[in-house]
């Protein structure tokens, strides 16, 4: 085949580069490690971590539930916890956890009387629950008696008053205070 007319193509025969001037051949690349092992290891580690987190969450929930659940295992324990909630911490929501049907009006009135007397004397009463005695007429009802002691320092003199109370309880998925009355 002839070059087109007027082209300046040389007719020099092809020349080869001498072998000593050639670049050395590139070494063959090392075979790559399959990525499957790394993926498998990462998947196993992620799975174990997920199981540990889920197990920790379940354990945490169970421990939290046990720690915050009110103790309604025995009538005397319920009365003490109820009186602590009503008279000491004055937490109606906590107190309701220990009653049959919400707050007991007689105990709310007693607490209001204590608060009024504290304001009148400008002191804070220390409330102690003493001599708690439980009796169970049958397996689903109980009577608990307790003495509520109110103490305060009034005009530099330590004073205290005691009020005996009687509580009736029923076992309704745990013991609960259903009524209260001063004795």
Based on CA atoms alone, the radius of gyration comes out at: 43 Å
Write down the secondary-structure element order. Answer: HHHHEEEE
Helix content: 25-40%
The number of E-state strands comes to 4
pLDDT under 50 segments (min length 5)? none
Protein model, in words:
The protein is of the alpha+beta class and 183 residues long. Helices cover 38% and strands 27% of the residues. The protein contains four helices and four strands; from the N terminus they run H-H-H-H-E-E-E-E. It has helices spanning 36-68, 75-88, 92-96, 105-121, and strands at 126-138, 141-154, 157-171, 175-182. Strand 3 and strand 4 (175-182) form a beta hairpin. The longest helix is centred in the N-terminal third of the chain and has 33 residues, at 36-68. The N and C termini lie far apart (131 Å). The mean pLDDT is 83.
Please give a handful of descriptors for the protein shown.
183 residues, alpha+beta, four-stranded antiparallel beta sheet, 38% helix
């Amino acid at each position: 085949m002839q070059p087109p007319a007027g082209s300046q193509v040389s007719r020099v025969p092809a020349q080869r580069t001498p072998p000593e001037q050639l670049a050395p051949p590139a070494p063959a690349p090392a075979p790559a490690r399959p990525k499957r092992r790394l993926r498998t290891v990462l998947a196993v580690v992620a799975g174990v971590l997920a199981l540990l987190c889920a197990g920790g969450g379940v354990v945490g929930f169970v421990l939290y539930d046990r720690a915050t659940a009110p103790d309604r295992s025995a009538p005397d324990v319920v009365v003490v916890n109820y009186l602590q909630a009503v008279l000491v911490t004055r937490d109606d929501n906590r107190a309701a956890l220990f009653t049959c049907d919400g707050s007991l009006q007689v105990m709310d009135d007693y607490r209001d009387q204590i608060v009024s007397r504290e304001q009148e004397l400008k002191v804070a009463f220390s409330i102690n629950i003493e001599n708690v005695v439980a009796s169970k007429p049958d397996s689903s009802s109980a009577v608990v008696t307790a003495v509520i002691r109110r103490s305060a320092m009034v005009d530099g003199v330590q004073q205290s008053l005691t009020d005996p109370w009687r509580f009736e309880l029923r076992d309704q998925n745990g013991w609960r205070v259903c009524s209260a009355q001063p004795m």
